[in-house]
Amino acid sequence: MASSSSSPGRCPARSLAPRPGAVASLIPGLPDDVAAVILCLLTFPDQSRLRATSRAWRLLLSAPTLLLLRRRLRLPSRHLLCLFPDDPSLASPILLDPSAPTAWWPLPPIPCSPHLYALANFAALAVGSHLYVLGGSHFDARSYPLGDPSPSAAAYRLDLALSPHRWERLPDMHIPRGSFACAPAPAGGVIVAGGGSRHPTLPSYGSRINNTEWYDAATNTWHIVTPMLRERAGCVGFVERGGVDGREDELWVMGGYDGYTTVGGVVPNDLYCRDAVALGLWSGRWREIGDMWVEGERGRLGPMATISADDGRVTEVFMLDGHNIFRYHFASNRWLKEATLRRKIPNTELCGFVSLNGELNVIKSANVPIKISHPRRLLKKGQALEFQVYNPVSRKWRVFITHAPVSESFDCRSAALCTVEL
Length: 422
Description:
- The protein is mainly β.
- Helix content is 8%, strand content 39%.
- It has a 4-stranded antiparallel β-sheet, with helices on one face. A 4-stranded antiparallel β-sheet has the order 5-6-9-10, with no helix packed on it. Strands 11-12-13-14 form a 4-stranded antiparallel β-sheet, with no helix packed on it.
- A hairpin with a 2-residue loop joins strand 22 and strand 23 (324-329).
- The protein starts with 31 loop residues before the first helix and ends with a strand.
């Protein structure tokens, strides 16, 4: 490798001198290209902390420089897990780098309102280095009656490439919504569909909508597009680039509920959707996919996770149903059993399901004893997260437990998960 006195073309950190006339040395005693590789391989929390060391380190550990350096070294893209344990205006979101399961990095909470509280059923997703928090359902102290939740149209964005991290308030969506399908748009921005006003504290109450709109990041505006064929809330979505047979890019919306009935004329019961619909992003037309399972096979669509290729194209879609993981077969429009969890989960509604680096992660709270060195203190229970990780290629499982800086148990009904690719 070249030393710090090598030509600028061979040394990626040559131009990162702290000031003119100073010695261009990132780490004393090491060539700059070797030091740059070492800093590039650190975990994201460590890189965030080390940016304040010097001007040269801040420039090297910035997102544009790191991305270019990782591409030159042909390193794989880095996926981070972002966990929203509760209302993001009260509980800080936290990032986890899978390469260092014990290193969590807190993010600032979104701006807090004195009138709005208990935000839930919001959507969290990442587009590049931008992290979005959209919509949701909350309570408004100014509304009457006070006990009725209302949907939110608020939108926030945070750029992980900037330091320090700050949330930016974006223009509100045209239609307030929570529990909706949301996915990154192919040309940048976000596209949302469906939703309603239901809140976890009132699981049998709330409205439903069929409106669809997308956010254009270039113009910082929301645009209304063709609504869905019928109202649907509690659904999930993803963008299938090129369609399943070479057609246009499509937004797929699966699951959710489109109505409710009563049991015995008293207890409300949701009517869950067994079908899927797809919106052509260029033609603006919806098409019906059909039922994905027959009646009696399962009650509702479980948590979903998608695996994408390097170009962002969705290649596999998986669902967690009970103790089993199912793979979606596009040709037959059916869910095929893929694997069974290593450890049983009593209630899958309380756990998270997300893909990281081509692997499927099932996340739930786990109470494990924390060892205390003091001999007179007894062992006590501490909050922890259990990860059951499944590799669809090798079909192997691994399990690990990490302690997250959260004060309450992880509940997916009020929490949110998303994957950030840097």
